[in-house]
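Hi L.,

You mentioned the student needs an example of a multi-chain input paired with its predicted structure. This one should do, with 348 residues in total across all chains.
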Amino acid sequence: MTSPHLSELALQEAAESAALLPAAQAAHLRGCSLCQGRVATYRQLFGAAAQLPPPAFSFDLTASVLAQLPRAQPAFPWVLGGVAALVVGVVVVFLMLFGGVLAQAVQGLFTVLGAGLGVVVAVFAAGQGLELLARHRRHMRLLTFS
Amino acid sequence: MRTLPTSSATDQQLVAQVLGGNTAAFGQVVQRTEGLVTQLIFKMIRHPADRPDLAQEVYLKVFKSLAGFKFQAKLSTWVGQVTYNTCLHYLEKKRLVLLDPAEAAPDDAAEDGRRALPPATSDDDPETALFDQDLAGILGAAIEQLPPLYRTLIALYHQQELSYEEIAQITSLPDGTVKNYLFRARKQLKQHLLARYHRHDL
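Structure written out for the whole complex:
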């Protein structure tokens, strides 16, 4: 036996299918028990790898995935749209009929609210002023040397 | 009226049903691909607690991007690609590597002069059956010791029986790189097993 032994790559290829080998290597393999043994080792390895039990989750993956899927988009809510259109229509009609009165009422309301706000601000400012005055007097008394 | 998904429906029919709002058809997609998805997640992700969430994330991504699937590959291959990329993203976030060059370097020193695995004999030989169980356990453990990318390739090729082209599509690696990594992975596995068995000389 003068030809070199098969390379590791050739051994793996021969283990998958002897037909993958070039003629010279195939001829060597037929007459070399060492290479035949090495090819057999790879064949056994590949066979055992194929027979390994596949990994599996301990739960039902399909059911779990289906439960997590986003809800399908509902069809356009025609009923809700109709109700909304009805409400908008009522509001528009109301504004058309009573818009003027409503505007006056709102204007009057703004006047009253403005006056009320002014009174509150004035009372608050007066209170703060009196408080400052009282504090000043207390300080002055403390500073008086008798 | 919705049609019920059947196991004989083609990828196109199944996708059309899901896109038409039939979520039950998506269950069929999961059942067809869960072997591949589970295999990828278990081989790429070492932390068991993270695997269920990743599986959910994968299928949620598949569901949301199903409309963009153009049937340029098999549906299962595309789902595998989504799984691989999702796991890769997870590893990047955790600053983990899929293939450490130092870990992946082949060890030629232990090449020749090693002992061979015992030769396979008939299936009804009790000693052989015992040995096969032993080999399966040792092989499973040896695969777990490989870098994540190597054990993923071993699982895809030898367990899922995917072609080099399909593996290349899933991993976005060139065909030649897939073959090269697979070659190294098998070599490492063989060396590991030879180191464990000393019963029969070559």
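You could point out the following to them. Residues 101-196 of chain B form a domain with the Arc Repressor Mutant, subunit A fold (CATH 1.10.10.10). Confidence is low (pLDDT under 50) at residues 107-128 of chain B.

Best wishes,
N.
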